[in-house]
Amino acid sequence: MSTTLQELATLDRVIHEPARLMIMTVLYAISEADFIYLQNECGLTQGNLSSHLAKLEEAKYVDVEKKFKGKYPLTICSLTLKGRKAFEEYARIMRAATQGPARGKS
Amino acid sequence: MSETSNAILEATRRARDYWDIDGLPALLAGANTVLLGILWLPPVRHRSWWGAALVLGLIALIFLSESKKTLEWLKNRITYPRTGYVAPPKKIPYSKRDPYATISIIKEPEAKEPGGPLEGRASRKALDFPFLRLLLLWWFFSFNGWLASLTCLATALWFWWRNKKDPPWFEIVGATIAGLLSAILTVSDRSRFCIVLIVFGASGMTKGATLLISYLRQHPAPQA
After folding, report:
1. Which of B42, B32, B77, B39 is nearest to B57 (CA)?
2. Are B29 and B63 in contact (CB under 8 A)?
3. Which of A85, B106, B114, B162 is most buried (CB neighbours < 10 A)?
4. Rounded Cα gap, residues B181 and B141, in angstroms
C-alpha cells in the first residue's frame, strides 16, 4: 500500500459525512451564513441541519452564534480556524488520492 | 488551498449572486441615479427658495438611497427572513458586478472575517471612485448629442459583449434609449446628461422592481 492510499484512512470522519461536507464546503466559500441560507443551499431539513451543525460545533469546526436583527432572529454559522484547516487537510488528502491520469475509455 | 474545487467556486458564485437576487441593490442604485439626474436638471438648480428646498430634499433622498443602512434595513425585512443571510464574498470581480454598481455610489457590503461581529458589514470606501466616473461622464456628455449618443450605444454594446451568455437586457435597453434620446432631443448639455442619468436609473429601478416582484412571488412568506 502506498502512503497516499494509507492516508485515506486518516480522513476526518466528522467532515467525511456528505451532509457535513456540504455544510463545510459552503461555509469554506463564504465567511458566514445563517441557518436558513445553509438549509436552502444544502437542501437539508431543519432537524437534519441542526444535528449536523451540532456535530460540527462539537468538533469546534463551526461557530454558531444567535443574534437578533430587529425582530428577526439570525443563527449565524461560520467556520472556525480549526475547521478551515481541517477542511483544507481533508481536501488535500482527497485530491491526492483521486487525481492522476484518467482511465477508462480504451 | 492552492487549487479551488468546483464546489467551492459554485458556492462562492451563488453567495455572490445572492446579494442581487432580490433586486433591492438595483432598485436603490437606480433610484439613486434617477435622483442624481433630477438634482442636476437646470430648473431644479434655480436659485429660488423652493429650488433650494428641493435641492436639499433631493440630496437627503440621495444619501438615504445610497446608504447601505437603508439597503440592510430592507434586506433585514424582506430577504433574510425568506431565504436567509449570507455575507457576500470579500472580493467581487469588476466583471461580475452588476452594471449599476459601476454608476451608483452604493457599495456592496464587505464580507468580514469568520467569527466577527454582525454589525459593520458595510464599508464606505468606494465613494470617491463612482463620483469620479460621474464627473468623467459629465465631461464626456458636454461635447454634443451625437457623441453622447454614440457613447450610450457603445455602452450598450459593451454590456452585451461583457456577458454574451446572459446579457443584462435592462441595462442594454436603458443605455440604448438614453443614446437615442441624446441624439433626438435638442437640449442643453447639462440637460442631456441629466436625461441619460434619469433613463439609465429608471431602467435600473425597473430591473430591481422586476427582480423584487419575481423574488417575492417565489418566496411569499418568511421561513420559520
Report:
1. B39
2. no
3. B106
4. 13
State whether residue B218 is helix, strand or coil.
helix
ipTM attached to this prediction: 0.82
Tell me: the pLDDT tens digits for B79-96? 988 999 888 656 555 445
Assigned C-alpha cell, B213: 416582484
Contacts across the A-B interface (CB distance below 8 Å)? 91
**Chain B contact for A92 (CB, 8 A cutoff):** yes
User: Which of A20, A25, A37, A67 to mutate to probe the B interface, most B CBs <10 Å?
Assistant: A37
Amino acid found at A28: Y
Provide the residue type at B2 as one letter: S
B90 touches chain A (CB under 8 A): yes
Is B193 strand, coil or helix? helix
Alpha-carbon distance of B132 to B62, in angstroms, equals 17
Cβ distance of A80 and B83 shorter than 8 Å: no
Q: Model pTM?
A: 0.72
With a CB-CB cutoff of 8 Å, which residues 59-78 of chain B face chain A?
A: 76-77
Tens digit of pLDDT for each residue in A16-39? 999 999 999 999 988 889 999 999
> Per the structure block, which three cell numbers stand in for B170?
435592462
